[in-house]
Amino acid sequence: MSGNTTRTDAHRGRRREIVFAALTLAASVLFALIVIPTGVTTPSSVKHLPLSPAFLPYLLTIAIGLFALIHMLEAIFAPHIPGEDEDMMSGVHPRWKSRLLMLCALLLVYLLVPDRLGMLLTSVLVTVALLAIGGERRPVILLGVGITVPLLVYLFFAHVAQVPLPTGIFEDWM
Amino acid sequence: MLENIATGFELFFTLGNLMAITAGVCLGVVVGAIPGLTATMAVALALPFTFNLDPVTGILLLVGVYKGGVFGGSITAILIRAPGTPAAACTILDGYPLAQKGQAGKALNMALYASCIADFLSNLSLIFFASLIAGLALAFGPPEYFWLICFSLTVVISISGSSLTKGLISGLLGLLTSTIGLDLVYGTQRFTFDNFNLMGGVSYIPLLIGLFALPEVIDFYVRKVAPVTVKTADKSRVTLEEFKRSLVSIIRGSFIGVIIGTIPGAGATAAAFLSYGEARRTSKSPETFGKGNIEGVAASEAGNNGVAGATLIPLLALGIPGDVVTAVILGAFMLQGLTPGPLMFQDNITIIYAIFIGIMLSSVVLLGSGKLAIRYFAKIADIPRHILLPVVLMFCVFGSYAVQSQMFDVGVMLAFGALGYVMMKIHMAAAPFLMGFILGPLFEDNLRRSFLISEDITIFFRSPICWIFIAITVLSLYVGVRRELRATRAKRDAIRAGGAR
């Protein structure tokens, strides 16, 4: 039974490594054929190949492709090492999808909202929300940590480190 | 000379100087421990306070902040996997696993001891070998730099983790990311796609914070139970046996730091990784590195703190700032009406001696303030993770924003956080990525500058320094690859033996 499990793990791990190598290889080809030609402007006056702005990106992309190929061969032919290939989905939270979605939404709030609401208010909202998602239910902690810590951090960055943080709706007060 | 030293002592031993160096180190430790606020930023923040101080007091305040900042970065690197300064990124590799095992106190103490010893040795080098080492550093042109960077890049092999090919791909991706921005020679765009924010390249601090700290936050919310929680920063101490075992790595790392620190632009991060790589290469149990080996913490901290005193060598001996921090300190010298360089050793030798005495004392102050900082900062490890991680995320956002005061950097941090999380899930080491990203601009710049000097490829073999670095690069590659292949073969044999049974 355990022999079968090990074999299944090994099979899964091997497949995962092959997929990783194949994706990396495909990405390097895509990069060399599309991204570098469109993303790097090479002046016509370049006399010597290593002086070209595209030289290093091409060199690195080729090297990445080469190592991806080596990794793929390694994954195909070398015996798999089960201990190191813990399943990506093992031990996940039963509601991990919704938790991840909420986390992503809150990270977007951190990115998009501070200019309007101000960094302080955004931090308070996100911190309280994250505490709640993490399972904290005590109002004292939720509000105490959620308000006091962002306020102290804000004051430190704004007044000690002199970082001009977005003030948002508190513009007239701060 | 003795008279000058005596005058230097007289000039140094004032209450103001002692207070300045103590306050500087303490401020540096606190600021350095906050992710996003680097030692450079701490020195820049302290600069205005020096305007009305005596030259010696002002300079010592800044030097204290700098040294404190370099150590402070390791505290949060060990406790919450968020390096306070870029140079502390290497300390994560073994410091954080030790904290996860409930040995945060031991890791922090070893980081402090290694930092103090390295700092002391670096200061001694500054005092006794300044002119000699500065002369050697002047012999470095673009080809010599190029080979030095090539040698530094071989460290990627040592920090690749479980898969050498994945580690190399990670390092190459880091190098590729470093090419984003305006081309240094022609000024044309590379992967900026007309985005103004990318013209100067990807910001270093947001990338660092995103790559190391954010994946921990994401992982916490995705997992059922946090797989590993940082246990209480117990009373675990470094034993004499552990200290003795790490001493060679500390001394070797200190001298690596001194050499790297003397060469302008090379940086403390590269020194930390080089020192770590060497410690792992020469260790009898290299497989334990990256899993909580106390020697790994000692080596990386010795490497990055060894740089601290040495960066002052080109500044004081030649008047050339080796990095941004010493450039700020150079500004402070000039504000005080002093011009560092050979002439300063003639005209203001007593001030130089007073500064040297203060710098030596800073290592002792660092030990005291570091002990104090460990006692209080270590309590962070006691905070439940569901409360700690939202606060860590907040520091990540504030720290990233603080770099250039723009939300774009927060976006960069989040993007690299996502990348770091994916890398964590597919068992791809993030440290080689960081190493590639740091050394990428230096690698390309010196490669192209060499070709600008001469289109003939023989320029890369023009001096004995080039040949020395070529030899150690080849040797390092050979030894590193052979060791990794042996380790892989040993694992394979173990599996086969297990399967046969």
Automatic annotation (TrEMBL), chain A:
Domain of life of the source: Bacteria
Keywords: Membrane, Transmembrane, Transmembrane helix
InterPro entries for the chain: DUF1468
Transmembrane residue ranges: 18-36, 56-77, 98-113, 119-135, 140-161
Annotated DUF1468 domain residues: 20-166
Protein name: Tripartite tricarboxylate transporter TctB family protein
Organism: Roseovarius pacificus
From TrEMBL, chain B:
Keyword Amino-acid biosynthesis: no
Superkingdom to which the source organism belongs: Bacteria
Segments forming domain DUF112: 18-434
Transmembrane region(s): 12-34, 111-139, 145-164, 171-189, 201-222, 254-276, 312-338, 350-374, 386-403, 410-439, 459-481
Keywords: Membrane, Transmembrane, Transmembrane helix
A Pfam cross-reference name: TctA
Protein name: Putative tricarboxylic transport membrane protein
